[in-house]
Design a protein that fits this description.
The protein contains seven helices and no strands. The chain is mainly alpha-helical. It has two domains: 103 residues, Rna Polymerase Sigma Factor, Chain: A (Orthogonal Bundle), CATH 1.10.1740; 59 residues, Arc Repressor Mutant, subunit A (Orthogonal Bundle). Helix 2 packs across helix 5 and helix 5 crosses helix 7.
Length: 196
């Protein structure tokens, strides 16, 4: 029996139409539509970000990218390209910006800490048990974070990794303050339940 031939142009066109609709809804303030947009595009954006910025900065850069996408959703113009191309251009730009910042920060131009071989004591290096424990704890946390919705991860990241207040997060995201508070509380509760 012959397998049906899938037309990638039609598949991409359908995907682009769906993503464009989600962006239009997100531009109107629909957080659920933006979450669907995130779920449908994040693996592509993460691949671009990781290729440029590496694993160390990938999550931060991806958060910055989607924050910009949320703010700029109203500016998306389907006549200039597909939603995925628009997002990946943004992801590439954010990753390159981050690498430029890191180069300036640690390239000797802004007083990067110097390595002093005499001050490092080999007894303070973590052993295999500590390294394994650290990796396992990181894996549990990563798995727990993956259970959160995109909005929960977003506001939690702004609160803990960017150290923004709840009011600042409401201003950044355009979400009502009460929504920000409930998202953070719900995310913390889910993480606590998952990690215990």
């Amino acid at each position: 029996m012959q397998q049906p031939v899938i037309d990638p142009v039609k598949t991409n066109a359908a995907r682009d139409a769906q993503l464009a609709g989600l962006l239009r809804a997100a531009a109107g303030g629909d957080g659920a539509a933006f979450e669907s947009f995130y779920n449908g595009t994040s693996r592509y954006a993460m691949a671009v970000v990781r290729r440029i910025a590496g694993d160390v900065h990938a999550e931060d850069v991806l958060s910055d990218c989607y924050l910009q996408a949320w703010r700029s959703a109203k500016d998306f113009d389907a006549g200039r390209g597909s939603p995925l191309s628009w997002l990946l251009t943004m992801a590439r730009s954010r990753a390159l910006d981050r690498m430029r910042q890191e180069t300036l920060r640690h390239g000797g131009l802004s007083g990067a800490p110097e390595f002093d071989p005499d001050s490092s004591e080999t007894g303070q290096d973590p052993g295999p048990e500590q390294l394994l424990e650290s990796v396992e704890a990181g894996s549990r946390l990563h798995a727990a974070l993956s259970l959160l919705s995109a909005n929960e991860r977003w506001v939690l990241g702004l609160a803990y990794f960017r150290e923004h207040s709840q009011s600042e997060i409401a201003g950044i995201t355009g979400l009502p303050l009460g929504t920000v508070k409930s998202l953070i509380t719900r995310a913390q509760h889910k993480l606590r339940e998952t990690l215990q």
